[in-house]
Amino acid sequence: MLRLWAALPRVTTGALGCGGARRLSTAMFYAVKRGRKTGVFPTWSECQAQVNRFPAARFKKFATEDEAWAFVRNTSSPEPTTEQTKKCNTEDPKVKPNKRPCESSDEDEPCKKIAKQDSEPLLSKDKFSYMGDATVVYTDGCCSSNGKRKARAGIGVYWGPGHPLNVGERLPGRQTNQRAEIHAACKAIEQAKNQNISKLVLYTDSMFTINGITNWVKDWKKNGWKTSTGKDVINKEDFIKLDKLIQGIDIEWMHVPGHSGFPGNEEADRLAREGAKKFQDST
């Protein structure tokens, strides 16, 4: 199931609402569990001021004030449980953040190899960032000397600060910027499925990827993977892979301008550039 939201995070967050609702409602309460200020706010604009561009923000919309406060106080109890003390909560000086290991730097597996992902531990919901009830991820691809013989491409997937699923890998196969963008999205969706995530908000600065998977791919398949001018689709295999991966998961495709100061996009770009420097797997 696909829906396209080609807008900035500031706009799309409001469109989804703190509780994931897609229709406006009255007398709602906006709870911020993790943000610049925690608490319950009567308007979305006040809630947004606390969570916009705040790393790993947690917030939600409720119909009653009691439910909103229960959400806020769930992890802010003065006597956290053993499980809660394991969570990364930098706002509480008594709780030390988890030092999560990064994925092995020598894991330059092609996007099509999902077997490696099966060995990843299943993470708790508190390890992710959310927009309403959907998990948020940023992806990016890069390619130095794009179109030239010595081109080097990489993919970046960013789930949050220090997240164990953050990825910076060398792109296998043909080295182009467009392939890197597509395969970065592939990687994120593979990871999401392996974490049993059913709703995903995927930010990318590639309108080519968004248009391809939400619009053009339908006509390409009808035309035998030919463009409107009768030419072969250059990235056919890449879009076939992405088209298969999106089945069975609800994805919101969000466009964010590249290199515009959005932390998630900047981190995904950094990871992609790091990946481009790695050795390319020849298998």
Question: What is this entry, summarized?
Answer:
The chain is of the alpha/beta class and 283 residues long. 31% of the residues lie in helices and 19% in strands. Helix 5 (177-194) packs parallel to helix 7 (236-245).
Q: How does this model look, in words?
A:
- It is a single chain.
- The strands form two sheets. Strands 1, 5, 6, 7, 8, 9 and 10 form a seven-stranded mixed sheet that branches.
- The radius of gyration is 20 Å and the shape is elongated.
- The protein has 283 residues and is an alpha/beta fold.
- The chain is 31% helix and 19% strand.
- Strand 5 (130-131) and strand 6 (134-144) form a beta hairpin.
- It contains eight helices and ten strands.
Largest sheet: 7 strands, mixed
Strand element count: 10
Structural class: alpha/beta
Q: Give, in order, the helices and strands.
A: EHEEHEHHEEEEHEHHEH
Shape descriptor reads elongated
Strand content: 15-25%
Q: What is the strand and helix layout of this fold?
A:
Elements: E1 2-5, H1 9-16, E2 29-34, E3 39-41, H2 44-51, E4 58-62, H3 65-73, H4 82-85, E5 130-131, E6 134-144, E7 152-158, E8 167-170, H5 177-194, E9 199-204, H6 207-222, H7 236-245, E10 250-255, H8 263-276
Parallel strand pairs: 1-10, 6-9, 9-10
Antiparallel strand pairs: 2-3, 2-4, 5-6, 6-7, 7-8
Helix pairs in contact: 5-7
For the structure shown, list the relevant keywords.
283 residues; 7-stranded mixed β-sheet; 3-stranded antiparallel β-sheet; elongated
